From TrEMBL, chains A, B:
It is an enzyme of class 2 (transferase). This is PTS-dependent dihydroxyacetone kinase, dihydroxyacetone-binding subunit DhaK. The keyword Zinc does not apply. InterPro entries: DhaK_dom (IPR004006), Dihydroxyacetone_Kinase (IPR050861).
Amino acid sequence: MKKLMNEPNAVVDEMIEGYAAAYARHVKVLPQNKRAVVCAGGARPGKVGVVIGGGSGHEPAFMGLIGRGFADGAPVGNVFASPPPAPILEVTRAVNGGAGVIYMYGNYAGDCMNFDMAAELAAMEHIRVETVLVTDDVASAPPSQAHRRRGIAGGFLVFKAAGAAAERGYGLEDVVRVARKTNDAIRTMGVALTPCAVPQTGKPSFVLGEDEMEIGLGIHGEPGVERGKLRTADEVADALLERILADMPVESGDRVAVLINGLGSTPQMELFIVYRRVAQRLAELGAHIHRSFVGEYVTSLEMGGCSVSVLKLDDELAELVDDPADTPMYAQHREGKEG
Amino acid sequence: MKKLMNEPNAVVDEMIEGYAAAYARHVKVLPQNKRAVVCAGGARPGKVGVVIGGGSGHEPAFMGLIGRGFADGAPVGNVFASPPPAPILEVTRAVNGGAGVIYMYGNYAGDCMNFDMAAELAAMEHIRVETVLVTDDVASAPPSQAHRRRGIAGGFLVFKAAGAAAERGYGLEDVVRVARKTNDAIRTMGVALTPCAVPQTGKPSFVLGEDEMEIGLGIHGEPGVERGKLRTADEVADALLERILADMPVESGDRVAVLINGLGSTPQMELFIVYRRVAQRLAELGAHIHRSFVGEYVTSLEMGGCSVSVLKLDDELAELVDDPADTPMYAQHREGKEG
């Protein structure tokens, strides 16, 4: 597959260089580690430091979400690979304002190992670190094993809510509580239509027939739960939503946030067509969609397809999801304030 | 090519339905015409109405850019086809706050014909309309015929500057002056790697070999100026920038805005790698990059590739480009204000 790149092994470093140059108002790379990206303003005393991260290839996650009201820093791994402990530790030190640090990332073995090691090293420096794993992918384990599920696009809303809580001045325990509550209340189901290729190999990450799709396929190409003929957008939306609702029922009067996430090459047009059906179905159930997000939030390079996430809101989460944010790749204004 | 859609002929209407449902805080569809999308708050008395538009398939352009500090309304055409006069006229009426209306769109024959007809109809209702065509695509005509050039991604910055001017309360003549000045000071060059397919046919819009790229190919598949083997990202960035600079020299001390626009399926990672090189080259020339935009602004469904735009700024344009904006698909905060 064709890529605009120089050396395949340099893509991540060159991406970070370009990103930091383009958005120097928001972010900086730490001089001691070129894979450690943090907010330009540095740590803020008394504020919980919010660290998100994981492999590259999921842009705008994770470093695109650094800024006021969202994350304070992101260690950056190779494509589809966890960052090692060193950049995680450097980011932790840089965003520690004395109120502790929260790590949030998708539940993958490599990430767990590396972030845990960094947390231990941080503890030796008397930095308190708490971890919340994102486990929103319904397809990746049955309900009885929900804690083993992988983290996919729903992480965006877990980070959003916890980032807003930290911005409001919540203490570490409360930021952790918000992150856990959000993760417990969100479910995601994805569908893949076409593969991506990691730069080093240039080979497609999986093979699907010209008329096929796969439901539940992971953001690194992990096997899904159902392969079959591509159906209409409404049928696909129904299939995704039904699996979500079977796992987490939504009832009349429930308030939800909805996220339709493009995996990389799917036109916005198609994402809005999928959103249309999801919104219709939720309205039929009597649910109220409090806020919607349609676009690319957690991608897989140029993979084709999308995911649907539903987050059940209480008053606290509704406010936190609404709170303003100002990051290079995602910004949201405070309601009613000047534009 | 695979698409998440229902009836191919319904994609535009269903997209608009989904979009308006997802972003009802920002936009509404006029009941009298389902292709007329305007800001939720309606016309603002005394403010110049800003209308942008064109065919679908370029999302987030155009309707994704409706909101404070940007456009007031967008008539929506079929995929890669101009909207007819009716939705243009309805949008014009709806955003007219008594201070006149500016039309801005890319220079394509169909758009010119339909927007001009709508402007004549609006004039009969005593609504003053002025038009500024976007002509930023260096590849589409030689310098001596610059007014015949097509409009591509640079339109985003023309709309941004003029939208900010209207938001500041500039009169119609000044908003038009800003739009013309921005268009005169911006140049864009694109490169395509892979085609898109319009939903009605499902056929690729052009054919390129597995190792080929085409420089200057238009956002509807119009022929480019140079087809050849895919080169490294730095070489591609150099080739695009050299054509821009040959047309509009940038000198030491110049202030510029840079826009790297993804055409649809190109990962953000690659856009930042291209940005990195463009920024290096401009720095070597002694230019100062005042603000950068990297992402998808004017797409061509799932086309692969990107474009580079350079806008030369004076004090006025620098301020207008910096002004806050709040639209569903693009938001920008006021510097120094809370997040």
